[in-house]
Amino acid sequence: MDRFHAMQAFVRVVETGSFTKAAAALHLSRTTVTQLVQQLEARLRVQLLNRTTRKVNVTPDGAAYYAQLVPLLAELEAIETGLPGAATAPRGSLRVDVPSPLATLVLMPALPAFHARYPDIELELGASDRKVDPIADGVDCIVRGGAVTDNALKARHVADLRLGVYAAPAYLARAGVPVHPEELADRRHRIVAYRWSTPDGHAPYAMRRGAEQAWVRGRHVVRTDDGNAYLAAGLAGLGVLWLPDYMARAPAAGGALLPLFADWQVDPMPMHVAYPATRHVSRRLRAFIDWIVELMADQHPVTATRR
Predict the structure, then answer these.
(1) Which PANTHER family does this entry report, sorted A to Z (predicted)?
(2) Strand, coil or helix: what is 83?
(3) What pTM, to 2 d.p., does this model score?
């Protein structure tokens, strides 16, 4: 038995609550992960996990063992990477989930530079706007807009993205050009609604002009939880959009979208990288987080970037 790999397998099963998800995170087969944990239990002569057909639960002994393993594995990695003769460049696989428009428009074009800098990091990039649980889904980190409220996660603030309000020319020809945000509540106007990960799926847009404030919800005929679909709905004339600059730049430059409320400001969208609070931040994860911060600060307009 490779005791180190068995320990890693056990830790990921505990964190994900699933042999299947742990196997995916470790790029191993489910059978291999199962065998590693079974061998570990046999060596320790202790049952670490309770298994049923539906779920996996950690036993009291398993929970105590897990609590000691996490810092131990982190220390082992630090020792290995700190040896004078050891390779110092970050290496290994990294599972990341990011919003689909950010992946398409920002990250993918910049990845050649990332891999030139870190050739030994294998990046598995999930591109979706669905709610991803880094712990349950076996993901090393997620990049998301909005506040991070889950206490099981640690978050690093990456940037504050500038937002603007836009609509397609066909929509404005049909509904008229609004001159005040409150007009979007009128019956003739529609917005394209985005399903946020809030209890009711809604989040009003805060807009300001000097001391004047407006909170816009609006009516909608379509609501989506995917950024690319959200943009496509606006381009099709289905309603008014709130877009970060990086998404609006190309369609606005080509005339497919027109800006609205030029004298109003939209509260910026904070962007965070989040990862499990109990999980050791590996050198490859630290390298990726630092790169995201650098990328957003250097190449894409933001209102502020804090560490």
Answers:
(1) HTH-TYPE TRANSCRIPTIONAL REGULATOR, LYSR-FAMILY REGULATORY PROTEIN
(2) coil
(3) 0.73
